[in-house]
Specification:
Radius of gyration: 19 Å
Number of strands: 15
Organism: Brevundimonas goettingensis
Keywords: Transit peptide
Protein name: Folate-binding protein YgfZ
Oligomer: single chain
Order of helices and strands: EEHEEEHEEEEHHHEEEEEE
CATH architecture of the largest domain: 2-Layer Sandwich
CATH superfamily of the largest domain: Probable tRNA modification gtpase trme, domain 1
Strand order of the largest sheet: 10-13-12-11-14-15
Distance between the termini: 48 Å
Pfam family, one: Beta-barrel_CAF17_C
Strand content: 25-35%
Number of helices: 5
CATH class of the largest domain: Alpha Beta
């Protein structure tokens, strides 16, 4: 059965005008110049030091680009883009069309989620009849093990690679410059990735946001970001995920998602 849910936590921005694609291409982690009609891509706007400010999807909408962003951050992104606009021939405006998700399959009229096929699809426009609440979609996302940067990161604190953007098609390393590119490219090139967001599984309710993940009872291995009964997303040190992990005194286990390749752990540092 394919489920459909309206995503009230998401909202749209329409960027139009002669320079729309080149304008966004100079800012975002994703290639925009080649974005086709009806095509969906995943990316982010970073701070100049390379930390996440806004996660977003980009949808080709004629000559314009729709940005699918966290609803409570839409106005902040509009202001940020307006600040960058300068003399670019672009218009940046809120778009009130709804966002709908389908899962586990891509329903008719939907576009495949570019992060992983396991997440189903997205649609912009008429919602139609939904069959499930947004909470069910979020539970599916947790089961797939994909972070939601709008919920799982603090603004301007987390690097996109820590939030798995490089593994979820959120960064085009072959494109030209974007805001924060130097730090992002250096982290990838050196391969010195110490922290990543990974799913935890456990019995009972989710730990408190910010709860410490401990290795062998006393070594800090990371912190819980968000979660639900039985599963959560945590930002973890990759050199401290093998062993006896606990959160708030409860045993937890790291679950490596199917979409995540096995990476060599960095050398342990005390």
């Amino acid at each position: 059965m394919t489920n459909l849910a309206g995503l009230d936590s998401r909202a749209l921005i329409r960027v139009s005008g002669e320079d729309a694609k080149s304008f966004l291409n100079n800012l975002l982690t994703q290639e925009v110049e080649t974005l086709g009609e009806g095509e969906l891509r995943f990316g982010a706007l970073l701070s100049p030091p390379g930390r996440l400010l806004f996660d977003l999807f980009l949808f080709g909408d004629g000559d314009a680009v729709l940005l699918d962003v966290a609803a409570d951050r839409r106005e902040a992104l509009i202001q940020r883009l307006s600040m960058y606009k300068l003399r670019a021939r672009v218009e940046v405006a809120a778009d009130d069309r709804p966002v709908t998700a389908s899962w586990p399959a891509v329903a008719e009229g939907f576009v495949a989620d570019p992060r992983t096929a396991l997440l189903g699809g997205r649609r912009y426009g008429e919602t139609g009849t939904t069959t499930a609440p947004e909470a069910d979609y979020d539970a599916h996302r947790l089961a797939v093990g994909v972070p939601d940067p709008a919920r799982d990161t603090a603004v301007d604190r987390t690097y996109p690679i820590e939030a798995d953007f490089d593994l979820l098609n959120g960064i085009d390393f072959a494109k030209g410059c974007f805001v924060g590119q130097e730090t992002t490219s250096r982290m990838k090139r050196r391969g010195a990735i110490r922290n990543r967001m990974l799913p935890l599984v456990f019995d009972g309710p989710a730990p408190a946001v910010g709860a410490e993940v401990l290795l062998n009872g006393d070594r800090r291995a990371g912190e819980v970001m968000t979660g639900a009964d039985g599963s959560a997303i945590a930002l973890l040190r990759l050199d401290r995920i093998d062993g006896d992990l606990t959160v708030e005194g409860r045993s937890v286990t790291v679950r490596r998602p199917d979409w995540m390749p096995v990476e060599p752990a960095p050398h342990s540092e005390d």
